[in-house]
Amino acid sequence: MPARAISSATISFGLVAIPVKLFTATSSEQVSFNMLDPETKGRVQQQYIVPSTGKVVSRSTLVKGYEYAKGQYVVFEDAELKALEAERSNSIEIVEFVPLSSVDLLSVEKSYYLGPDKGGDKAYRLLTEAMQHTKKVAVGRWAARGKEQLVLVRPYKTGLILHQMFYANEVRSYEEVDTGATFEFKDAERNLAEKLIAELSVDSFQPDRYKDEYASRVLAAVEKKVAGEQIHVSQEVPKAQVIDLFEALKQSLEQVQGPGGPVKAAANSSSASADEAEEEKPLPVKKAAPRKTRSRKAS
Description:
This protein has helices at 78-84, 121-134, 187-199, 213-226, 245-257, 263-268, 271-279; strands at residues 7-13, 16-24, 48-49, 56-57, 64-69, 72-76, 91-99, 108-116, 136-144, 147-156, 159-165, 243-244, 284-285. The chain is an alpha+beta fold. The strands form 4 sheets. It has a 7-stranded mixed barrel. A two-stranded antiparallel ribbon has the order 3-4. A two-stranded antiparallel ribbon has the order 5-6. It is extended.
């Protein structure tokens, strides 16, 4: 079944205008839950309550306010906000072409496939092949839904893809992250780390080899509950122990290669360096805590 376009737009640069159609490129398949009343098992509804009075207010009566200082707001009417919106032209105006290598893909927020709309096939194909040949991507503005989006248009497979981008002030500086102390590693440590990487390396990333294991477990549990089966709670996984880095690398490589693998010979080939590494104070290895990420709902 062919994909259904969610919107249409026009790519423009110079005097060239290319009508295109937008298609959803990604969608979350994460499992979700509803909040229920424990007695009736019916869904509950959220209410808007004024904290100072406890009064329940209807959503239709609410107004929009911007907090310019702690607890202080300026109120906007719908007509005022409407006047601030960009012209609803749905135009993708290309401003410049840049090398893809100069774009940090951290700034990508959401992606859409682009296909030619009626009458735009030839110009669409020409732009695609020209960007492929020059190895350039297009930076532009997309006036959609009354807001001006920063976008990137690049060749993708046999056509084009559009990336909705975060603005520079929406991307946190990496310099704010504490990356820890620096170390001088022994050759034996470095060699084992590189050998472990080599053993776990493949020619290319194949996303279809991976699936959401959590979602699979939840759906399996749902089927059991629907069938009336009881769910057994597994014991908590023990926390990772702090061990010597050199030993952790050797054990990891042995697990990958199996018993009798060449890891022992590899370690012994740098025995002098290994002895030096053992004399050093062991470097602790801990399971890294999950890094917090900031999400923003696409407009």
